[in-house]
């Protein structure tokens, strides 16, 4: 059974990646990641000049969730296909830097690495602070496993931080390159008060209730990032942690079919197919994918 697990999903239920990516505080981590990414001027301009982010920042979050889902819970074929698609899109895009007058490729490895590190470090930081119990070894293993996801966008594994120490060292090296551009400041405003995609416009009446979520994402940023932005007055760290834990508890209590409606239809279909494949392989999927973080729901040969 274990020898064929790679044929079912890219990352098996036994991985640290499943523990992190199935935690619902990932939504906070995703928005935090976008806010952090925006501090790199060239990376931010790449998004600004080549997407509809200004009109639909929430849409970008959902597309990121689709990519993360496919390279975690999808089949190897699904992961390879979305990787080819993403690399193809990036290959054709360029960034104009008004500060230097130069043109850069969107798929510049340094830019891809920044986006990857801002994203996965945000996921890991938020879920741990939100209350997911991960040992230091498991946290390192998560980043090590995420080197594989980086290959789908065109990076080489050996160029990607694979431990918490390596990730910390990477951010220290990059700090001097980061600043708040007009685009970055606008991005934070958008992310705290987004325009909803068409299929979610029925939720517009409750949009004011979104602001506390956007603010929570902002307050989970590293201290140095918040100092750069200066977008909101500071609040006690303990208050932010308590709010994050409350959000996590609430979201994790939602039934999986209800929660999955936040994803794009194609993402929901991919998750359904993943449950079917794993169920056919002997996993107990009666509690959904989240239930598979419990070894008692694995096939006997794996749980032993």
What's the alpha carbon Rg, rounded to whole Å? 19 Å
Strand order of the largest sheet: 1-2
Order of helices and strands: HHHHHEEHHHHHHHHHH
Q: How many separate structural domains? A: 1
Give the count of helical stretches: 15
What is the beta-strand fraction? under 5%
Q: What integer is the average pLDDT?
A: 91
Q: Low-confidence parts, pLDDT < 50 over ≥5 residues? A: none
Distance between the termini: 12 Å
Shape: globular
Give the % helix: 55-70%
Number of strands: 2
Q: What class would the helix/strand composition place it in? A: mainly alpha
Largest sheet: 2 strands, antiparallel
Pfam families: MPAB_Lcp_cat
Domain ER-bound oxygenase mpaB/mpaB'/Rubber oxygenase catalytic: 18-249
GO molecular function: oxidoreductase activity
Protein name: DUF2236 domain-containing protein
Structure, explained:
GO terms for molecular function: oxidoreductase activity. InterPro entries: MPAB/Lcp_cat_dom. Residues 18-249 form the ER-bound oxygenase mpaB/mpaB'/Rubber oxygenase catalytic domain. The model has no long low-confidence stretch (mean pLDDT 91). The chain is 58% helix and 2% strand. It has helices spanning 16-21, 26-37, 41-50, 57-70, 76-92, 109-130, 136-151, 164-174, 182-192, 210-219, 223-229, 237-252, 256-259, 265-280, 300-303, and strands at residues 94-96, 103-105. The protein is globular. It has one domain (2-303). A two-stranded antiparallel ribbon has the order 1-2. By secondary structure, the protein is mainly alpha-helical. Helix 2 (26-37) packs across helix 10 and helix 4 packs parallel to helix 14 (265-280). A hairpin with a 6-residue loop joins strand 1 and strand 2. It is built from 15 helices and 2 strands.
């Amino acid at each position: 059974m274990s020898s064929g697990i790679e044929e079912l999903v890219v990352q098996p239920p036994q991985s640290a990646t499943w523990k992190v990516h199935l935690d619902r505080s990932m939504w906070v981590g995703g928005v935090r990641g976008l806010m952090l990414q925006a501090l790199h001027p060239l990376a931010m301009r790449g998004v600004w000049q080549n997407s509809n982010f200004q009109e639909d920042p929430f849409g970008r979050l959902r597309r990121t969730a689709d990519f993360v889902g496919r390279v975690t819970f999808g089949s190897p074929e699904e992961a390879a296909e979305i990787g080819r698609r993403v690399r193809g899109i990036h290959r054709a895009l360029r960034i104009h830097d008004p500060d230097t007058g130069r043109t850069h490729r969107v798929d510049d490895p340094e830019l891809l690495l920044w986006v990857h590190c801002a994203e996965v470090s945000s996921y890991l930081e938020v879920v741990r602070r939100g209350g997911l119990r991960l040992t230091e070894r498991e946290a390192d293993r998560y980043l090590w496993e995420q080197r594989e996801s980086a290959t789908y966008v065109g990076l080489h594994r050996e160029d990607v931080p694979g431990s918490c120490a390596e990730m910390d060292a990477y951010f220290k090296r990059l700090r001097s390159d980061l600043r708040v551009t007009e685009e970055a400041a606008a991005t934070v405003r958008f992310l705290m008060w987004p325009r909803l995609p068409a299929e979610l416009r029925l939720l517009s009446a409750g949009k004011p209730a979104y602001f506390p979520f956007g603010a929570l994402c902002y307050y989970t940023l590293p201290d140095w990032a918040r100092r750069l932005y200066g977008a909101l007055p500071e609040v006690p760290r303990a208050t932010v942690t308590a709010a994050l834990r409350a959000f996590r508890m609430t979201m994790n209590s939602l039934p999986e079919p209800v929660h999955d409606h936040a994803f794009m239809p194609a993402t929901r279909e991919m998750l359904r197919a993943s449950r079917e494949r794993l169920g056919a392989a002997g996993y107990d999927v009666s509690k959904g994918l989240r239930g598979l973080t419990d070894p008692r729901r694995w096939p006997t040969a794996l749980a032993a």
